[in-house]
């Protein structure tokens, strides 16, 4: 990881002179985080929320998959359908969390636009909410993304009836989105719903969501690892985002392991076991034959991994997107680990343009 720096207002350069977190990312209001399952997208979404809230900021971390992942990451009770403070950010600031439920979002929608608060609860008891989202499957995603849009547009003192102050309530909203295989459909389904509803609040709601997601206020970050399948899925997703006119953000490379040996040249010779043994003995280390065999196996596996990682990294570099890197934490990711990852993001220039 390069430590080459520019001024704090511009960010940090990688080894190739490319900004890791350019101004376009710092200026975004909505940060959508996706990734192939198992790459750690939820963990990095949480770390990003902490990093962007540093220095007195306020961020909102939103989840939409009903897993209560935020509560597990921050070791808090399950979140209700309301925004709650879940962490204090480094150097001041705070992170709030919200678990969006489609049914609650629909009831809120009915109350806000049709004044059907009590009737909406009756509909829930009748199962009409599930019926509506089953009849129009895209409606569920419209409700979820619509709630996210409402949070992005919230202002200080806004009671949803008056605009209040024009100052945004949140410096940034971070959305822990569905995995890469579903994220483009999730983010783009509002177009289909907008065409289904010709007039009325749902049409207005859909147009507003489309406008936000396709604007410079939004960026979509993709979490990956230095392995063939996650990298290929990352590249495919970036292409799909571009085709859908959804703005790609940064590639967040997770669980990067240190290189203990030089990256082997293509077609290079395997490790010389006699030379290795001689070097160890010169350093005062005398291994039994079986110990030496085990060491050579580990060396071979390590150099093979380095070669694979070098290859997939070159494919990521060719995509031309900003990149940030996070290491594999030896003790796993607990609350302390989230703060460690957030600090590493800040060291790479990740910030919000207050």
Average pLDDT metric: 83
**Beta-strand fraction estimate:** 5-15%
Report Rg.
Answer: 24 Å
In sequence order, what are the helices and strands, one letter per element? Answer: HEHEHEEHHHHEHHEHEHHEH
Weakly predicted, low-confidence segments = 1-10
N- to C-terminal separation? 26 Å
Number of helices: 13
* Helix and strand composition category: alpha/beta
| Number of DSSP strand runs | 8
**Which of globular, elongated, flat, extended, rod-shaped describes the shape?**
elongated
The biggest sheet, with number of strands, parallel, antiparallel or mixed sense and barrel status, is: 8 strands, mixed
Strand order of the largest sheet: 3-4-2-5-1-6-7-8
Helix content: 40-55%
Key features of this structure:
354 residues; alpha/beta; 8 strands; elongated; disordered N terminus
